[in-house]
Amino acid sequence: MKKLYRFLLQQHIGAPDSPVVKTGDRVERGTLIAVPTKLGANIHSSVSGSVVEVNEREIVVEADENQDGSTVAIQADSIIDAVKEAGIVGMGGAGFPTHVKLNTDLQGGVVIANGVECEPLLKHNIKEMEENPALIIRGLKYAMQATKAARGIVAIKAKNTKAIAAVRAAINDASITIAELPDIYPMGEERAIVREVLGKLLACDQLPSAAGAVISNVETLSRICEAVESKKPFVTKNVTVAGKLKSGRESVVFMDVPLGTPIKDLIEAAGGIDGAYGEIIMGGPFTGKSVSLDSVVTKTTGGILVTLPLPNEKRKMGLLVCACGANEERLRELAQKMGAPVVGVERCKQVVDVKNAIKCENPGNCPGQAEKIMKLKKSGAEVVLVSNCSDCTNTVMGVAPKMKLPVYHHTDHVMRTVGHRLVRRLKPTK
Amino acid sequence: MSITQETAAHHKNDPAVVCCLTEAGTVISPADLEDPAIFPDLEDSGLLNLPANVLKIGQILGAKLTKTIDALTPITPDVVEGIQAIEEATEAAVEATVDDEGVREAAPVATAAPVAQVGEPSVVAGGMVKIRIEEAKGINLEFPTVVMSGGAPAAAQAEAPAAQPAGAVAAVEAAPAVKVEDKVRRTLNIREFAVKKVELGETTSFENGVLTIRKALCEEALKADPLVKKIEMDFVTPDNKHVYSPTIMDCMPIAAKVEGSLGEGVTHALTGVVVILTGVDESGLQVHEFGSCEGHMDEKIRYGRPGTPDEGDIMIRVMTTIAAGCGMERRGPYAAHKVCDIILQEVREVLKKVPAEQAVNTIEHKDVTRLGRPRVVLVKEIMGQGAMHDNVILPTEPAGVFGGRPNVDLGNVPVVLSPNEVRDGGIHALTCIGPASKENTRHYFREPLVSLMANDEEINLVGVVFVGSPQINDEKNYVCGRVGAIVEALGVDGAIVTTEGFGNNHIDFAGHIEQIGKRGVSVVGVTYSAYQGALVVGNKYMDAMIDLNKDSNGFESEVLGDNTLCPWDAERALRMLKTKMAGEEIKAPGRKWDQSVIEANQKLVDAAK
Fold this sequence. Notes:
- The structure holds two protein chains of two kinds.
- Chain A has twelve helices and 22 strands.
- Chain A has helices spanning 79-86, 98-102, 124-131, 133-147, 161-170, 190-198, 218-230, 263-269, 328-338, 370-378, 390-399, 412-418; strands at 4-8, 18-19, 26-27, 32-35, 43-44, 49-54, 58-63, 110-115, 151-157, 176-181, 213-217, 236-243, 252-258, 280-282, 289-291, 303-306, 317-321, 342-347, 351-354, 357-360, 383-386, 407-409.
- In chain A, the strands form six sheets. Chain A has a five-stranded mixed beta sheet, sandwiched between helices. A four-stranded antiparallel beta sheet of chain A has the order 1-7-6-3, with no helix packed on it. In chain A, strands 10-9-8-11 form a four-stranded parallel beta sheet, sandwiched between helices.
- In chain A, a hairpin with a 6-residue loop joins strand 14 (280-282) and strand 15 (289-291).
- Chain A is globular and about 65 Å long.
- By secondary structure, chain B is of the alpha/beta class.
- Chain B folds into three domains: 5-81, Antifreeze-like/N-acetylneuraminic acid synthase C-terminal domain (Type Iii Antifreeze Protein Isoform Hplc 12, Alpha-Beta Complex); 188-361, no CATH class; 376-607, no CATH class.
- In chain B, helix 11 (448-455) packs across helix 14 and helix 12 (473-490) packs parallel to helix 13.
């Protein structure tokens, strides 16, 4: 049976792309099928086959039964051109078009390779750093060259010793160093990295360039390397599948999954869903979104998590919204799925509205939560659901239980699925 | 909550408690500390126990933590090194004062020089303002009552004769060239005619103190609105008030315009009688089903309030029955008020023709512009959520319905009335739930704060702004913004904001105060709050508040008019405003409602008379 691959026209920050193929067209792996209208990035077919549908949301390609693995090369003279033609976007989750990000003059600044992978359960960045660090380091050098940066830094959590060793062995240039970061969420957030690595706390509406830095996910860098050296368009993505799988509870990493692949196929390949499940989450436990089984892999797909059914909760629930985790909408969705009436919503003091999103003034450094928890209790909450980072959740745990308020964290059902330690109190470090 | 440098400086003598897990080696900064403003709540919740050896914020800023401590742990000498000495002079001054005065807030504050000499230092000496509010929201929600201190204009000034009007408050306006002059804008004469008896008869008449109302009127009035299914009228005399009544929708005076329009000319009014409008629907549901004052009239009415019958008043009861289910719709209550007004109009027509010489009394009200005195405005928030939560502004006849515009139809935006327009029945209130804290039509006809401010020669009352309280927050923000703009345009030095009811309306009540306060205008808030009506929102401009509570348990008692603004409340409010305008300090309220604070303030005000 022939397989269908669906390429969403919006796989990046910006506006949806405009298709340049029509139904019936023949495409090869690497054929350009959509181009940006405003801010965006090129989209190429990840398979050879024929276009069977073009609509305002997506382009559907029926793949040939035999895929020979060859890829149509892009045409490009410069690094930026190669990145642009290849359609590379940030692979840490946000999907900002990389050619726009690199189109800056850092005047001797720094490019930081983000290998922090701070969302629990996700493993594909670590695996790549362990197995193919040279590709990442070469990509980092191209990014430094394009932005006129003098230094490169690879940021990795200190606990990932194997990855650190592999990356260190791959570094052959004195201008590139490794920064080891503590194991708390959200160390991988751009502004948290700038703060930890460069010692500068950016305002919520500032980009890392305000600190003379560009931050790029390690996979993005390896895709840059492929585009520059092999003229390969961005048509495959590394993905972690984890959760309630027949194969067990260990994360399964798939390297180079063709874009447009149904996630159902990936879950099957990872062993298949083990009985009843709660949600399918695309992304990590903290910031991922609940999606349907019909979804497909996009340029920003990092994790596919199958969770346990959500617990039933009838008590009145208070929500504490944090900019580092789930937003209010997601918390309300979870409360509704649990069956709990929401009686109060508070936002962490550090939440700031920036454009259409919320951001944290100082990611991972708690400003205190006692007042918010007291307010939730006052509004009638008998139980609270929080979406805080590690440090803020630790504070909540120092407050809520003393007030006889049980605490749920919005990642609980994911963590429990895989037997991961729940986000509650921090482990004592000293 | 982590605090700012500024807050830390303000609280340098308060205990230092970390807000979050803080690691050994941390050099303590304000960002690591919990806000002392919420300590009392934390202690109440069992989250915080302050040991005797807890260090002060001023002592530990910049000091280094030697041990990792959890959220809400007080910082004690055993977990920190490098304790700082607090600046000696300040410490000594604060403590010295505490010793001298024995009161916590008694730190000597440099009060405004012009008024310092008229204060009463032994009692109230400008207290240190402890406003623990950082932002416009999320505050000490429970300040229930409020406090004035600082004996602003001392007794001498308050009693100063008209010839010497520039008292303490006027001194604020330091410009020597200011001309002190009264300009009378308009005069209203209300001629009062005493009613001794009310009866039903063949024609409506008023002779020798006997008011006769035509029997057939009720039947005829029914035609005015098909939603009203039945009207009954009877008279409740002062000697027999133990009578059952459906919920009271309004208490109104009978008054008629004889010359001029509202606010000027001549008005005839009946005394010794009021009209009580009641309402129930055909299915037996009270129009105020939730928060009704149905019951025996001797128990469910607080007699003698500005908005209620006086003890000796004869009550003309107009009891309406409206179509089932429309009590909570706008048309239902409005229909009841409309038919009642039709009945009263026939009485008014008779009243207009009564010879002036039969009047037992004539009250003269003047709208006066008092040049050279601080300009002040009164902002009255009125209900505007629809159904019975509505008010008819500026009817043709005093306290009437026809000819006026409901504030809901006006989008609840602020409308300015002159003090005389208010005192000539410029507001017809569709009194709503809960009855204890809502202002009836009669309340506006004899509004004590309007009269007090209009007659006070130390201030220049420029007008009375009525603003409706809409249901939706966006609309609340809208009308608050307009109040701010009007106050700015009026160029006033001070404002008093009153509201009726509690809860939802407190959101815009707080919003009005913020809009006024942030324009640099001294502002005082007046509301029922106490226990049941504790404020749900607040901001830093709400530091001078008057509580109208008169219920010993602090509840909305469902007794008509119980917790409304009375003459003595008006005196506290105006004194509070004068105190604030004079730059005197006002003590912060306690955390919980305490009626004794209100009583103590009342004594201060009474003593100054």
